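assembly run, all chains below
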Amino acid sequence: MSLPSSKKIAILRDRAAMLAAARLFFANRNVMEVDCPLLTAGASVDAHIDLISASNAGEIRYLHSSPEYGMKRLLADGIGDIYQLAHVFRAAEQGKKHNPEFMMAEWYRCGFTFEEMIHDTLDFIRVFLGDLPASIVSYRDLCKRHTGIDYFTADEKTLLQLIKERDIMPYDGIEEEGKDALLNVILGTLVEPHLGRGELTVLAYYPSTQAALAQTRLHGDEPVAERFEIYYEGIELANGYHELAHATEQRQRLGEANDQRISLGKAPLPIDEAFLKALEKGLPDCCGVAVGVDRLMMLRHNANHIEDVIPFGWSTA
Amino acid sequence: MAQVSTNEFKTGMKVESEGQPYTIVSNEFVKPGKGQAFNRVRLKHLTTGRVVERTFKSGEKLEVADVVESAMRMLYKEADGVVFMDESTFEQVKIPLDNIGDTIQWLLEDLLYDIVFYKGAPVTVEPPTFMEMRIVETMPGERGNTASGRVLKPAVTESGAKIQVPIFVEQDEIVKVDTRTGEYVSRVSTQF
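ok done. output:
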């Protein structure tokens, strides 16, 4: 299954060149490199991201799933535009496009609008994939285009019926998980595979119920999150936000994420008080994005498996 | 009974879902954005051969199906089934024609086949991937008609399979066939 070593070495040589190109991209735009710690006492709390923990003489620490919290503490201290090329860790995320340990390029631009951040991210992706055209489409329009259904006005029954009509047997108990769980399956099976065919597709303005750490605003009657993802050839490459700066709302969302974890039968995670304290102090108005570097390398090399573009895959690490 | 989790799913694994036995055809891990991770799994029904697609929440478990495969020698055909014999126990089983399906065209007496047993009952017969068999019926090849590359003509093998062979293959010749696709692979030299 694994590549012959000469081919692998050629890919790793290109990977090194691309990491240098990525650093040059940021240097040219006056974005400073930082290296926030990988092992932290407070955890990033997300309903659907499970962390890998480590023990330091009995004290539990968490390998970060993104360098976000640390970077935001620096932003609140007034550091200005920053990026981190970080290995990040997500428990049990394994497949052709997933390795539990992977490399993320994460950066923040102060004073950028949501749309400016989308263009900054497209430019970064083009460093790896060449001068591809791009289109920006709303979540609502993309869902309509690929399913014929308006997610905003559709009820759960309609969504469930759509899934079944397309011969996708949903997993047991999805009904109890609500509308966002149904939309998640619809996005993953009926929409995502069609995105980014011959272009970079920017999926923007998510439902406000899937805002995560993004600011929300109104699109007519539809409350949306200023959140985007970018796809190429059906592969998700980037996830960006106009960052939520409100400490109280952030604390509430972390609490909700923990409640959701408990209802899914998972352990709640310790809230990162240092992160919330930084938000209370004041996060400058900024946008942030995370890009999967290994996926960019997969696309550059037409690789079928993430293991082909990193030194050692999970099974042999 | 043993269980396997979605992250252990491998192509070819036999599992049970809603009381039915399936072979895993493919397994894809899907995690859109910040949503719940799930697996898109294609399953082939062990007896009907019907392929269905199902989603499972990542980490969900399925029972391993009680499936045993054993190599058995084909003895003879009857009106309602085919009789095979276990090589080590000499035990004989008759497999109904319904469970044999299209594989009937690849059955030759005295040859070993993989028989799949589900909960102790024989359910399917797998022929060897490549089989050598005699052509019992085909038109004589026309000469001078090969300029455009490989030209094929219909033929019937001794097992009853209808296949396409190159025009130079004559009746009574032995050929090698890929039973997955029913395609001619090569001529098998015998007398030379």
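Chain B is about 0% helix and 55% strand.

Chain B has a mean pLDDT of 88.

not gonna interpret more than that til we talk
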